[in-house]
Amino acid sequence: MDHYLEIQLLADPEFPAPILMNALFAKLHRVLVQRENKRIGISFPTATPNHLGQRLRLHGTAAELDGLMAQPWLKGMRDHTEVSAIVNVPGNAQHIRVQRMQAKSSAERLRRRYLHRHPGTTEEEVRNLIPGMVEKKLNLPYLRLKSTSSGQDFALFLQQSQAGQPVAGEFNGYGLSRTATVPWF
Predict the structure, then answer these.
(1) Does the model's pTM come out above 0.90?
(2) Which terminus has fewer CB within 10 Å in the chain: N or C?
(3) Strand 94-101 to strand 153-162: parallel, antiparallel, or no bridges (unpaired)?
(4) Catalytic residue at 116?
């Protein structure tokens, strides 16, 4: 992770920044999965506790980032973005972990899952075992995406947390990792 580039969303009167970030991120996800790239991580340098901001930073080696940007994955987004050059990460950069966070957000889904795994249990028993108040809500910024496998919309909640020392590792098709870190500056 010695290089990075930034993609800045440009102000648009027709599309708010979160809609543009969702579209940009969906395109990034598709190209990362298509290329089977596990060496590019992401961060959101202008994120707030409730919003991911208007800048997406991609981290990797110069060769990995150059190969990614040689693909036409930004087609349709060029009028809405400004892409920086690929540059060296500052030497004094801290490191953070950017990972997906999931909550047990649907009591009904938990009940269906319990019924499936425990045949012979009645719906009333499960309703008593899993009350509606078990639901948890996350107060984190998120992206609204569409699953390529199921076609359903879902929220991808993200947490950027200080990690201290750099940790090498692989990233998933979203540029996220539970263990690997990316530079933060």
Answers:
(1) no
(2) C
(3) antiparallel
(4) no
Give tens-digit pLDDT for 6-15.
999 999 999 9
Nearest to 22 by CA among 4, 32, 39, 9: 9
Q: Are 12 and 20 in contact (CB under 8 A)?
A: yes
57-108 confidence digits (pLDDT tens): 999 999 999 999 999 999 999 999 999 999 999 999 999 999 999 876 677 7
Task: Give me the residue spans of the domains in the chain.
Answer: 3-101+138-184
* Nearest of 74, 52, 56, 80 to residue 143 by alpha carbon: 52
C-alpha distances (whole Å) from 88 to each of 60, 97, 110 are 10, 19, 46
